[in-house]
Structures are given as C-alpha cells and as structure tokens.
Amino acid sequence: MATTAASVGIAVRTLLSVLACVMAAAVAYLLAVYGLSTCFDPSDWWMHVVLLDFCIITAGIGAWFAYKESSWIKGAAFYLLLFWTGSITTCGYIVLQFYKLSPEESSKDPLYFVFKRRERGDVMEHKKEFSAITARVIFSALGCLLLGTSIYALIIDGSPFQPKVLRPCLVTTLIDVSIHVVVFWVWVAYKESSWISAFFWIILLACFRSIAICVYIVRELFYLSPEQPISLIIFSKRNRQVLITFDEPWYMTIIINHVTCPNNA
Question: What sign results for the dihedral spanned by CA atoms 215, 221, 140, 116?
C-alpha cells in the first residue's frame, strides 16, 4: 500500500512537471512567432469564452492557494503570477509541494498532504471563509455565465472548430486550460471513492471544462453541514474525517465544551 501511494505521488509529480514544460514551450513559441497581437480582438467571442474559462479555473486554484498559505501578500503575488503564466505556475507550485513532503507523508497519502495546509498556528485566520451558501451562489453564477457566453459565441461566431477561430493565442490558452483540467482530474480521482464515478466526472471535465468544475464544486458544497468550513471539500471523505476529528478548531471547540460543561451537552 505504501509503495502504491508513493508511486502515485511520483506519477503525478512527473506528469505535472512534463505539462509545465509543455506549457512553457507553447508560450515561448507564441511569443517568438506571433507575439501577443493575436490575443486582442474584441469581436472574437470564442476567445472571450476561453479567457472566461481560464479565469474561472484560476479562481478555483487561487481559492485552494488561499487555504494553503496564510499570507495575503503571497496570495496576491501567486494569483498575479497565475494569471500571467497560467498552468506553469499551478504545476510548478504543486510539484514544489510534493518535494516538501517527508518520506513518511510520501509513502502514506501524498495527495492528501499536498492538498492540506502545513501551518497550524494560523488555523483560526483561515476559519474566516465564505459560507457554503455563498460559495454555491458564486460558483453557480460562474458556471451559468460561462454557459451563457458559450451559447452566445456559438450563435454569433458559429462552431469553434474553424480555422479563423483557432488563432495561435486561442490555441495556446486552450492548452493552458486543458492542463488545468488535468490538475482537476487528479483532484477528482483523489476525492472519488469509486473509479466509475471518477471516470464519469473526468469525462465531464474533459468535455465542459469550467462548467463541469463549477457543477462538481457546487455538488460537493451541498454535502457540507452549515457549521463545516468550505475548505473540507478539498479532501476525500476518508481524509475529511481525519481533519474533522483532529485538525478543525470548530470541532475541537465542541469537544472541549462538552468535556468542560457536560450539563450543556
């Protein structure tokens, strides 16, 4: 079991390293051959769709980073870097988290320890999160916005699979979005207990990208109780029980109150 977990960690780390190199090569080719002029065309609605797709995905990645890191300065710098370099930053950051794991963490459950924040002193600061209802509204609105924009682009510009639509900047951005989708594949495969369910969501992510991501996140938010922090959706059900029992301050407060004031229980 330990060997299997370690192999999964190595495989994911290697995959993301390769994808980061692919994206770096794609960006270098775009800048060297075409420049950024092909990225600015207000009449190109499919470019708007892809950019919106990219922004929604990076919003999800940025939310995870905000959970992982305590510093708002780091968060702002990361999101700025993420916006301009995309999946290069995402893959690089995740690979770095793998290298920070101890041998014991790598052999037990590397994905859990990569997703989980390492700091313990700032837990209460991270407790100031959106409510599950607010998060559901935000991601539902983002998913509907992308769906509406995609339908409008289809009506105005027709099929996205046309030579005039597939400009160099759009193709490069699509590569970036696709790499981010692969990152979400890893997350979904980690979260889902059934391979059938994981495969189903992976197919949806491949076909609908950010729309499917928003649907999946909203679905996971519905599983939370009102008093649970929304950061719990990051983890699988098995790891979530560990966090609830040992790590989350709201749960420990309930236990302490029960022990110190048994008559109030």
Answer: negative
List, for residues 97-129, the tens digit of each pLDDT value: 999 999 899 888 899 999 998 755 444 444 456
For the chain, the farthest-separated pair of C-alpha atoms sits apart, in whole angstroms, at: 74
> What share of residues in the chain are helix, strand, coil (percent, to 5)?
80, 0, 20
* pLDDT tens, residue by residue, 202-243: 999 999 999 999 999 999 999 988 788 898 999 988 887 766
Query: 167: helix, coil or strand?
Result: coil
Reading the block at residue 69, the tokens are 């890191």
| pTM reported for the whole predicted model | 0.86
Q: Nearest Cα to 34, choosing from 162, 153, 173, 159?
A: 173
Compute the residue count for the chain.
265
Q: How many H helices and E strands in the chain?
A: 13, 0
Q: Which of 70, 57, 73, 83 is nearest to 217 (CA)?
A: 57
169, 30 in Cβ contact below 8 A? Answer: yes
